[in-house]
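Troubleshooting entry. The earlier prediction with iron/sulfur cluster gave an output that would not parse, so I re-checked the input for stray whitespace and re-submitted. Clean input:
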Amino acid sequence: MEPFFNLTLNELEHILGVCGKEKFRARQLFKWIYNKFVLDFELMTDIPKSLRKIFKEMFSFTFLNLESMERSKDGSTKFAFRTHDGYTVESVLMPEEDRTTLCVSTQIGCKMGCRFCVTGKIGFIRNLTTDEIVSQMMSVKKLTDTTITNVVFMGMGEPMDNVENVIKAIQIFGSPYGLNLSKRKITVSTSGLIDTLKTIPQNLCVIAISLNAADDEKRTYLMPINRIYPLETIVDFARSYRPDKRSRITFEYVIIGDINDSGKDAEKLADLLSGVKCKINIIPYNESKHISFKTPSDEKILNFQRILLKRGYTATIRKSKGQDVSAACGLLGSRYLEV
Ligand code: SF4
């Protein structure tokens, strides 16, 4: 049986074509499954009965097993799912006034070893399949009956290190016959694997690059990947990034107490990004018992933002979500360090 969540619309059309079926049946299946969330082939009334029977034998739906569901006092929920081979994958649902965002994981563990990130401490275990990435969305929908309006690839793992599966998942989330999320509602966050970023279509999704320092020495200390893709390479890429007139690249800046939170750091960042069409998202570091870094004071965070605003940048401070259930940025995967 073919796992349905593994297939993009094009792949499904191809499979049906090879089996001698009409291609438009693929669009019908996508609509029923992703749009109407009907997974029982018997209920797909615009498909002939004989074909429904064939589809039932052809396709399976993989829902990840729910291990735990922890609700934060701020309304977000962390889901821990168990994979078929016994690993745990975490996803976070964040309802806000005007949107509901799902943060999905792309790998179990991560190779990048960013010093401020719990997932980085686990090391790399394996990539998630397309099926497992899409299944996080479908499992959360099934459990909560929520309409998810935005997806961010900011959970466990470096999405660009599992690029094929991530692109397929984006195509499934973005298909007009399926979940129909526009590219502005899908964000991929990366530590800056520029060679891979260059290979993906610029208009596929919003790109966020995790910067976290404005000089190479500090960035290499925080993010070893900086040895391969230093700041100059990242800024050059950002300058050439022009998917359309309205889009701009986002830089994320995890601000850590006494590490990268000074006024001098902010000025350096403003100098570094001079002339780059971008948005800067300041993310106050979320403390973890596994890492000795500290969250900066509110005063320092606001001062950092003030400097960037004064220098003409769009700079926002991201509200931390789910900190009390280790669902916030950089905290996913804590359970691997506790066994
Ligand atoms: S911040 Fe992202 S890229 Fe860095 S170790 Fe954590 S999961 Fe990996």
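This one parsed fine. The two ends are 35 Å apart (CA to CA).
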